[in-house]
Amino acid sequence: MNVRSSMGRTILKVHEPTSGQIIFEGNDITNLSNKKMFPYRKKMQMVFQDPYASLNPRFTVGEIIEEPMIIHKMGTAHERKAIVQELIETVGLKPDHIRRYPHEFSGGQRQRIGIARTLALRPEFIVCDEPISALDVSIQAQVINLLEKLQRERGFSYLFIAHDLEMVYHISHKIGVMGGYGMKKKVISLMLAACMVMGMTACGSSASTTDSQPAADGTTSETQAATTDAAAQTTESTGDKELAVQIGPDPETIDPALNSAVDGGNMLLHAYECLLIVGEDGTLQPGQAESYEVSEDGLTWTFHLRDGLKWSDGSDLTANDFVYSWKRVCNPEVAAPYAETVLGMVKGYDEAIDGNLDALGVSAPDDSTLVVELANPCSYFWQPCSICYIKPCSGSYNRS
Known about the structure:
Number of strands: 15
Number of helices: 13
Largest sheet: 4 strands, antiparallel
Strand order of the largest sheet: 12-13-15-14
Radius of gyration: 24 Å
Distance between the termini: 48 Å
Structural class: alpha+beta
Helix content: 25-40%
Mean pLDDT: 75
Low-confidence stretches: 179-248
Order of helices and strands: HEEHEHHHEHEHHEEEEHEEEEHHHEEH
């Protein structure tokens, strides 16, 4: 179990703390006995990381969701059954699922069952312990959208624990990056700007050299690359928030599709321009795309490229270059290491990685318009559009 999960369980007193204090609603619950903690259990609940291991395989879905209410003696049997039925529908499952067993469901459905069980006691505070890390990329978006919807409707607070810092930025109102042991996690450049906006001071340093790299718009951009593997780490506190930044070694390649190191990705963010940019105030700003729109069903994203985009050799950069580049990322012969992470939510991705590149839901109706079709609605598809791994790569250059 990692340090983040241990912290979440300690806050709920599943694990006993060895030092420090746990304050809930102004009360110090650090040293409360199990008996005295019992009333707090209704108010503090958890969504677990593994959607299968956290469910009793001998119980039906209805029994799993009802069990917390039985333990806390909530309502009559009839009232509990009604609440179970309501929760089943709330999390997007079908009424007849109530009689099925966990092994009959997919990972995303099991996590919905776990969320329904968590909601049964009407908690005020929920620890989400990496609730999407075990799920496919396309399913992750559905679970995140559900969590956001439930929070809007019911008004509870989340402690959302995750190693995916882009996801943390998307769902969170306040962000904390753990120090000490957790400081070894690398922080991507997108999050540096985002965390500073949210009241967190970012500070990093290392012995470095300055390199000038060609950018996709024909300009040059100053990039910093650490000269040693043992990167220096610096932290600066703002109140009770702390952001740790680690700068790593030079990348092995400047090809966005082939770069496999987070450190290299950080450098490439400065060497290449993105479709969209996250500004210092945390808002999305034009990059290579001067604007974009999303269809009402959330399945189609249309990007309008700005005029005058050029490659460093002076040739025009068009929407067809994006289509080529995105399909290249999915090409099994290229074996791009981050293909699923950045494009797994695009319609036809599974067919594309099997070799049918034309199945990928990306097209260019004209030179300045890029259309992307998703397999499922995803409110945060802007994120992969603001990182380096799917930046355009010249088809003529690669062929030569």
